[in-house]
Every structure is written in structure tokens, then in C-alpha cells.
Amino acid sequence: SRPVRIAPSLLAADFARLGEEVRAVEAAGADWLHLDIMDGHFVPNISYGPQILKALRPHCGLPFDVHLMIAPVDPYLAAFAEAGAAVISVHAEAGPHLHRSLQSIRALGCKAGVVLNPATPAAAIEPVLDMLDLVLVMTVNPGFGGQSFLRSQLPKIAAIRRMIDASGREIALEVDGGVTAETARPCIEAGADTLVAGTAVFAKPDYRAAIEAIRGDAIR
Ligand code: DX5
Ligand code: ZN
After folding, report:
1. N or C, which terminus of the chain has less Cβ within 10 Å?
2. Does the active-site annotation cover 206?
């Protein structure tokens, strides 16, 4: 099996040195850069917007994996596409028009993802499966880094893995929240192929060792 992708979340980086931080995780072997966009409305925290992505784009060769925790979402999709997003993921809970949002993301030339909060069942993706390039399962309630991993989400990850395999489509299965070298293992066993990690990378002194520990390189 292919090694899992690691997507460090910029939320845990030093915001006074963002350019250096993205260069450092890229040099340390990260696969994607995960960007958490929070509006203080859909989630109880505010992070940063598309200007930051645009400023970082020349400093980083990694695909930008954009996680939108905002409502409404549709008026802002073009700004994130123009700022250099490769994948844009929207929450199934963020509004009544998930299908339209996914259509818009694809029309902007980006890959489209859907995110499920812990209380949202796997079945929420069924009606839009043919429009997806990625499914992101939250293993914390979104809004903050550094929370503990919710093991209750593991059966949902496994159920979505079965849905993706049955579809025969190439859809990434990403997990976000509380991922560490320890919690990565059950996620991978449940069928995740992409892991987001904020504090488990940026709060460590050696980014390369941190990424390798999450990927499980030491035990492979
Ligand atoms: C939470 C964000 C996560 C967060 C993860 O709302 O979606 O991406 O940065 O942080 P850790 O890895 O520290 O749980
Ligand atoms: Zn995220």
C-alpha cells in the first residue's frame, strides 16, 4: 500500500514567520499544506483569509489543501481558487446548497472536497459522491488546534472507505483533528490515505521526524 499523505496544518505554525514555516515543512517531507479558514460564525474562532494564501503561494511548492469553516461559503470560493488552492473543501453543515458549492469549486478548476463534523453521518456524502475528489472526516469539533482525537469517528472513516471503494472513483480520504503518531495508526487502518496534523508537526522541534512518525515510516 502507498504511504499516507501528510498535510501539516498552518494553524499551529508561528504566524510571525509563515514564509519560513511553509518552507520548513516542505523541506521536511510534507505532501500538502492544510489551510484552515475560520470565520467566527460557522466555528467559534477566526483564523486568516485568502490574502495569506496568496502571499505564501510563491514560498511553497506544495498543493494548498483549503478547509473552509465559513458560512456562507459560495461568495468566497473564487478568492481561494485565485489565491492558489488545489483542493477546496466545504462543510456539509455549512449551508443548504452543498451540491452547488461543489459544482462551483470544480468550475473554478479546483478539486472539490466535503467535510463532515463529528455528528454528521457518512451517508451525507452519498448524493454528491460523483462530484467529489476528497472527503475530510473531522476527528475533533472544528475551530481549534490541539484538541483530543475522537475515536468515535473511526467507524465512519471505515464506512466512507467502503463507499469510496464501491464507487470505483479516485477520492482521497482525509482525517483532521488530534492526529498524532499514535492516533494516525487507527486512521490508516480504517482506510484514511491523507492525515492533517497541526500541533503534532509545528509544536515539535524536528518537523521531519514529526512527519515521519505520523506517517509510520519508523515501523514500516
Ligand atoms: C480544526 C482544524 C484542524 C486543526 C488541527 O478546526 O480543522 O486542521 O488545525 O489541529 P491539530 O492537529 O492540532 O488537532
Ligand atoms: Zn482543518
Report:
1. N
2. no
What are the pLDDT digits (tens) for 166-192? 999 999 999 999 999 999 999 999 999
101 assigned binding-site residue: no
Q: What is the pLDDT of residue 220?
A: 47
CATH of domain 5-219: 3.20.20.70
Known catalytic membership, residue 14: no
For the segment 81-101, what is each residue's pLDDT rounded down to a tens digit? 999 999 999 999 999 999 999
Which sequence spans correspond to the domains of the chain?
5-219
- The answer on whether 178 is annotated among ligand-binding residues is yes
Residue nearest to atom 9 of ligand 1 (CA): 145
Contact 136, 160 (CB under 8 A): no
Closest Cα to atom 4 of ligand 1: 145
